[in-house]
Specification:
The chain is mainly α. The chain has helices spanning 6-22, 25-53, 57-66, 80-91, 95-111, 115-139, 161-178, 184-207, 213-239; strands at 68-69, 72-76. The protein has a domain at 25-49 and 83-239. A hairpin with a 2-residue loop joins strand 1 (68-69) and strand 2. Helix 5 packs antiparallel against helix 6 (115-139). The N and C termini lie far apart (46 Å). The model is unreliable at 6-10 and 250-261 (pLDDT under 50).
């Protein structure tokens, strides 16, 4: 029987901080993305299991009804103009808008000679769209029947395609733009805008009665996880020299911050 001493068990743990300190920025980014992706996929699996068993019904109904007037369930809370604002916000997660944004960004990347990066961005969004359709078909959850829908829907409910694809597109673009900046506050701002856009699209789906809240939560976590996986693949391909690296920054023009995505 192997003889494990306390020192032999503790030694690798003590070495871990030193190993992380020696790791390159790319390696640290890869580890961070692996952790986020794993957490997102685990969260999605746990949530999907709860939805299948029907354990989220009380939560879904409570949140959905909270967005409606108790006197008239066809009337969302708030002034009349808020409903129109939510319609506009939900359009930011539509297939037409997201496809247009993706094509515009891919075209820009091609113009600046980042053709393979453009292919990665377009491929990540296209594969995410396919995954969303497969998940909807696999779970086949019906749309909310508790309140009237404000808008047309043609697919199944779980996970929310608007929430999932907006997470993929906006978070990917947020990271893409953040990688071009040196100042941490600019990076944080860009990522915050991307996260806010993703958040408001999801909230609008519940407000309009088009999705159960857990549909949106599932869309957020699987979309964010998919975006991180796509960026992890891009980092690996850049390391292999198969995808164009991030544009070099001039040390004379841009101060070093030690913070890279």
């Amino acid at each position: 029987m192997p003889n494990f001493s306390t020192a032999s068990l503790i030694e690798p743990t003590l070495k871990l901080p030193r190993l992380l300190k020696r790791a390159s920025t790319v390696e640290k980014s890869a580890l961070f993305m692996i952790g986020l992706s794993a957490a997102a996929l685990y969260a999605f699996g746990s949530l999907a299991d709860e939805v299948i068993e029907g354990d989220t019904r009380t939560f879904d109904e409570f949140v959905l009804l909270a967005f409606r007037s108790q006197a008239d369930l066809s009337d969302p809370i708030g002034p009349g103009w808020l409903e129109e604002v939510m319609r506009d916000f939900t359009a930011l997660g539509s297939s037409t808008v997201l496809a247009s944004i993706t094509l515009a960004v891919a075209g820009y990347l091609v113009l600046i000679r980042k053709r393979r990066v453009a292919m990665m961005v377009a491929g990540g969004v296209a594969s995410g769209t396919l995954l969303s359709s497969l998940l909807k078909w696999g779970f086949s959850r019906s749309r909310p029947d508790l309140v009237p829908h404000i808008g047309e829907v043609y697919t199944q409910s779980f996970p929310s395609g608007h929430a999932m694809l907006s997470a993929i597109v906006y978070l990917t673009l947020g990271v893409l733009l953040a990688r071009t900046q040196a100042e941490p506050r600019v990076k944080i701002y860009l990522l915050s805008v991307a996260a806010a856009a993703t958040f408001i699209v999801g909230i609008s789906r519940v407000y309009l009665g088009l999705h159960w809240p857990t549909d949106v939560l599932a869309g957020w976590v699987i979309g964010a996880g998919w975006a991180m996986l796509c960026w992890l693949v891009m980092l690996w391909l850049q390391g292999q020299g198969k995808v164009e690296p991030e544009a070099a920054k001039s040390n004379a023009d841009i101060p070093s911050t030690g913070m890279e995505l």
